[in-house]
Specification:
Blueprint (H helix, E strand, L loop, with lengths): L3 H15 L4 H17 L9 H11 L4 H20 L26 H17 L4 H16 L3 H5 L12 E5 L5 E5 L2 H11 L24 H14 L9 H14 L4 H8 L4 H4 L1 H17 L7
Antiparallel strand pairs: 1-2
Length: 300
């Protein structure tokens, strides 16, 4: 029997090569499995039902989401070992997954988005050739107009956009390519900023700091810029982030009548269940609309 360390390394290698798991996913699985191994004294790879019951008791005091994540990692690990011929049974099948209540993602109303872009328009009108303002415009237009993840946006290649094409192909989560639509206004904003990017830069949004460990803008810097613009627009910064703009992109598409499968493709979700959370946001909006605008609402 392999040691836990060897078995976990083999499992993570399989996740990376066969499923294209992202680096952060691999790190999270590695941490959870190493911790489970430590709790079982190095006996995770050979764990039986009794050992897994001890693990479940260890997880009892954790948040449901954390316990569910750890249990899922162990179940997948043990299933992999059996499928790969390293053990003859899979006790992980009987390891219960704690039920988690999925929280609704934060989003912005149409009025908030209008205020955000109105403030951006005022900044552009006051300084139409200011590189910092042009960069901010390109960032926000692509976040809300194309639904990019923050990590995808900051790492865009310098020549990612072509004038008049209306879309770009990006490498997203797990190294998977997907086609992303680009509106005419987002394209114009991005190309206006690109004119200020040095020809030597590989990225559309270079870090701008000599000696920086990251050659492109960091997600933290993007987060700071979006928060700052929100404050100028009178939107509480706690309500907004790059990911909230991605949520708004998806929610507003669904509210506008977009098909769920199309939104799944645009967001790059591997599982439509991940996209379905946005239907709850849209449904909440519809319920509020009925309760406030229906002719009989005041009669209740």
């Amino acid at each position: 029997m392999m040691t836990d360390r060897q078995a976990i390394a083999l499992f993570l290698d399989s996740l990376a090569s066969e499923r294209g798991a992202a680096k952060n996913t691999l790190l999270a699985y590695g941490r959870d499995l190493a911790q489970a191994s430590a709790w079982l004294g190095g006996g995770l790879a050979g764990a039986d039902a009794a050992a897994l019951a001890r693990l479940a008791r260890q997880w009892a005091g954790l948040k449901r989401s954390s316990a569910a994540r750890k249990a899922s990692a162990v179940r997948q690990f043990l299933a992999f070992l059996m499928a790969d011929g390293h053990r003859s049974d899979d006790p992980g099948r009987d390891l219960a997954l704690p039920q988690t209540a999925r929280s609704l993602p934060k989003t912005l109303g149409a009025g908030d988005v209008e205020r955000l872009f109105a403030t951006l328009a005022e900044k552009l009108a006051a300084a139409p050739d200011d590189p910092a303002t042009l960069r901010l415009s390109a960032l926000v237009e692509l976040l809300y107009g194309s639904g990019l993840r923050a990590s995808e946006l900051v790492a865009l290649p310098r020549r990612a956009l072509k004038a008049g094409r209306g879309h770009m192909v990006i490498v997203g989560k797990g190294g998977k390519e997907r086609l992303v639509p680009v509106s005419r206004r987002a394209e114009a904003a991005a190309l206006a900023w690109e004119a200020h990017v040095p020809d030597t830069s590989r990225y559309l949004f270079p870090s701008g700091r000599a000696g920086s460990a990251t050659p492109h803008m960091t997600r933290l810097r993007l987060w700071q810029l979006v928060k700052s613009l929100a404050a100028e627009a009178g939107i509480p910064p706690a309500r907004i982030s790059p990911h909230v703009l991605r949520h708004a992109f998806a929610t507003h598409l669904l509210e506008g009548g977009a098909d769920l499968r199309i939104v799944q493709t645009l967001l790059g979700h591997a599982d439509i269940a991940t996209t379905q959370i946005y239907t709850h946001v849209a449904a909440a909006t519809l319920v509020e609309l009925v309760n406030t605008r229906h002719p009989l609402a005041d009669a209740q």
